[in-house]
């Protein structure tokens, strides 16, 4: 720790990260062992985090992430959207298709930023806030690819047709190496298929968005 950092804040954030990585919660003893600090320190950290609803403790004493984290998370989407818009605008205008940034929200894929091309006679109407299962549509499948299930990926992107909207095809690529964010960048267009050249352009756009978010 340097003089400019807070050891207490650092430990509190590490507690939150540990709890976010487990579905069943952690006990004071488990947290003490993992952080290498005594139980008294852990009790104080949990009490403070609980006051802000960032953690909760069940009847068995196990600590879990609290609902207060969700309130903080809602403020992340506007920041992510703002960072992604330049790359999405460039993608939409270049390929003449609706471009989107999709993030994981629970067990679903959630479109958080959408840009439609300005020069086409027609394009797919796709709105921010649209949700769909992770196993349907190019955006959701690309997120799964980003988790390591790469049996469906070709050259870093996923192509689909008619999975979310009849007559529409999609291409998407996962965001790579962006800590704390699972998502994909893609396009959707009215066609029987998406040319592979557009798939490669989507991969480039995903890298641009990832760079903007780091």
TrEMBL record:
GO molecular function: DNA binding; DNA-binding transcription factor activity
Keyword Repeat: no
Coiled-coil intervals: none
CDD domains: HTH_ARSR
InterPro entries: ArsR-like_HTH (IPR011991), GAF-like_dom_sf (IPR029016), HTH_MetabolicPath_Reg (IPR050707), Tscrpt_reg_IclR_C (IPR014757), Tscrpt_reg_IclR_N (IPR005471), WH-like_DNA-bd_sf (IPR036388), WH_DNA-bd_sf (IPR036390)
Cited PROSITE patterns: HTH_ICLR (PS51077), ICLR_ED (PS51078)
Chain ranges passing through the membrane: none
Alphabetical keyword list: DNA-binding, Transcription, Transcription regulation
Pfam families, per the entry: HTH_IclR, IclR_C
Superkingdom of origin: Bacteria
Alphabetical GO biological process terms: negative regulation of DNA-templated transcription
Domain HTH iclR-type: from-to ranges: 6-67
Keyword Transcription (UniProt): yes
Domain IclR-ED: 68-214
Name of the protein: Helix-turn-helix domain-containing protein
Species assigned in the record: Streptomyces tardus
Taxonomic lineage: Bacteria, Bacillati, Actinomycetota, Actinomycetes, Kitasatosporales
């Amino acid at each position: 720790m340097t003089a400019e950092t807070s050891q207490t804040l650092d430990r509190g954030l590490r507690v939150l990260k540990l709890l976010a990585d487990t579905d069943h919660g952690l006990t004071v003893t488990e947290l003490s062992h993992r952080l290498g600090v005594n139980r008294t320190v852990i009790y104080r950290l949990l009490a403070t985090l609980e006051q802000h609803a960032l953690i909760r403790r069940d009847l068995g004493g196990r600590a879990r992430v609290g609902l207060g984290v969700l309130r903080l998370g809602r403020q992340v989407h506007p920041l992510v959207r703002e960072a992604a818009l330049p790359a999405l605008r460039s993608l939409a205008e270049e390929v003449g298709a609706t471009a989107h940034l999709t993030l994981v929200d629970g067990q679903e894929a959630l479109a958080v930023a959408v840009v439609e091309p300005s020069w086409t006679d027609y394009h797919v109407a796709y709105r921010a806030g649209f949700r769909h299962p992770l196993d349907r549509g190019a955006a959701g499948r690309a997120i799964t690819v980003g988790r390591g299930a790469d049996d469906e990926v070709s050259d870093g992107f996923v192509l689909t047709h008619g999975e979310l909207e009849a007559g529409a095809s999609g291409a998407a690529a996962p965001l790579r190496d962006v800590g704390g964010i699972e998502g994909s960048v893609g396009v959707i267009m009215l066609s029987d298929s998406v040319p592979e050249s557009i798939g490669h352009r989507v991969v480039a756009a995903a890298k641009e968005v990832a760079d903007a978010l780091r």
